[in-house]
Amino acid sequence: MSKILVFLEQREGVLKQTSVDLWNRVQAFAALSSGSTVTGLIVGPADTRQIGTLFAGTGVVYHASEEPFRSYNQKSSLRLVLELTGMENFSAIYFADSALSRDLAPRLSVSLHASLLSGDLLFDQKGFPDGSVRPVYSGVAMASFAPQQRISIFKLSPSRGSTLRFSGENRVQVMPMKSLQHGIDPLISEVRRIILRENTLDIAEARIIVSGGRGIGSREGFKLLEELAALLGGAVGASRFAVDEGWRPHAEQIGQTGKVVAPELYFACGLSGAAQHLAGIGSAGTVVAINSDPDAPIFQVADYALVGDVHLVLPKLIEAIKEFLKKK
Amino acid sequence: MNIAVCLCQVPDSASVIGFADGVLDRSRINEVMNPYDEYALEEAVRIKERIEGSSVTVFCVARFSAQDMLRKALALGSDRAVLVSSASEPSDPYQTALYLSRALLEFYSGDMPDLVFCGKQATDFQHAEVPAMLGALLDIPSVSGVTALHLDGGQLSLEREIEGGVEQIELYLPAVLSAEKGLNQPRKTNIKAVMEARKKTIESMTVSVEVAPLVLMTGIVPLKREKVCRFVRDEKELVTLLGMAGSFF
């Protein structure tokens, strides 16, 4: 048995999809061990009605809903997690990998003298997490890590592992988080403004990603990828080369120096598949590679391959998908 | 203004990462300055050049000889370079952060540097944890993955990338900042600076830390990810197969 905390991120009052997924993943293995409890924490005002329709399993979600918590504040978030941990005596704390958790989790690790583990979970024989595994050295190797302290903090990459599905019945209770100290902490650091890119789905949360590399050839070349992504309700990703060339923003970079993604479907267009890039798509579901070089390493990790010039293939592919959708 | 920069070494991109009996084969590895640390050092030097009376000192907890890298840091504009060593090598990010915090406290005699820069992460183990842990140990704020920086008096305006956008942050010094790609374009060394750096002394410091690591690496194996790839004739066949494989569209 163990007491588990799941940190649930909100952005502009909406719970992040990665946090919903995280809750349901944790519920899947918590259900295996009798007496385990799962507790959630939301920092900042958020629409908690989603919990009644998306959150599987049972548990309590504490909600620190005061307006000053709307933007991320390192000190306030840390204080709330520490207060709740003091009350509930958690043995494991889960975060979805994000800009916020990369900022917060290491500090929490020092404050609680807790083991911080990142990547994907490793499980013991009973199906309970006992470590983590993730790519190292630019994705040429996998390293496994084990906790050495009583409390573990897990910062999980998006994954397609087992999750508990919402049963149709809400058994998760939302409780107000009454902080011992009111309001946010004195201004030491403060997020003043968040500038969101318009109409773009973040690659970390996308079900489908259309990614391009050197073979796309130019900034304009990515228009075709944008068209395909829009058609499928997906997001555009890019290799390091494409980002270094200025064709795409760094936020879209996938791989060792970019993001780790786990879409259900991944299109690799004009992308050779360097180890550094592959390090970012290890958890992708179905991989489709389109490349003119039949020996490109990307084909070794692809499920489906089409050898050809990406500039000629993509328009035909877009037409073929439109055709398919019409018939459906 | 006192600025500290924490550096580490990683295998360069031409190094062959191979394993013998589950241990990294070091024979074909050439260690260089971690690429993210170059952005950190560059930003520190730029602030020094703007604010009179500033001083930049680089610190490295070295697993292997880091003399060449520290000389390079001096040539790139650092005033002093300190090699931090201890009886045992740090085995996890927490120990590394702890060694660095002890070294900084000792070097600055308990008087905190105004700014501590680190790279966002080392490219070998990619933990990305040392900077925020160092902030916690020094009990000062930290901001991870900084992509833009503006310093006005004691107040810093920063930007960092978040999912789907950019966060603008304001904070007061002192602080630990970790540098993300895009923060600046690091300069190259020139011959004159390299010659001058040769004359400088690389200082050394020993710290003793008797604290167990928080995390243990239990194994490392080469990654295999071969799939059976199906080569399709044309776009139509691909769409048909994808239509059968899942509910993608």
What does this structure look like?
The complex is a heterodimer of chains A (328) and B (249). Chain A contains eight helices and 17 strands. By secondary structure, chain A is of the alpha/beta class. Chain A folds into two domains: 3-176, Rossmann fold; 203-327, 3-Layer(aba) Sandwich (Rossmann fold). In chain A, strands 9-8-7-10-6-1-4-5-11 form a nine-stranded mixed β-sheet, with helices on both faces. Chain A has a five-stranded parallel β-sheet with strand order 14-13-15-16-17. In chain A, strand 2 and strand 3 form a beta hairpin. Chain A is globular. Chain A starts with a strand and ends with a helix. The mean pLDDT of chain A is 90. With 249 residues, chain B is α/β, with parallel strands linked by helices. Chain B has one domain: HUPs (Rossmann fold, 3-Layer(aba) Sandwich), CATH 3.40.50. In chain B, 28% of the residues lie in helices and 33% in strands. Chain B has six helices and 15 strands. In chain B, the strands form three sheets. Chain B has a nine-stranded mixed β-sheet with strand order 11-10-9-12-8-1-6-7-13, with helices on both faces. Chain B has a two-stranded antiparallel sheet with strand order 2-5. A two-stranded antiparallel sheet of chain B has the order 3-4. In chain B, strand 3 (18-20) and strand 4 form a beta hairpin. The chains are: A alpha/beta (328), B alpha/beta (249). Chains A and B meet through helix 4, strand 7, strand 8, strand 9 and strand 12 of A and helix 3, helix 4, strand 9, strand 10 and strand 11 of B.
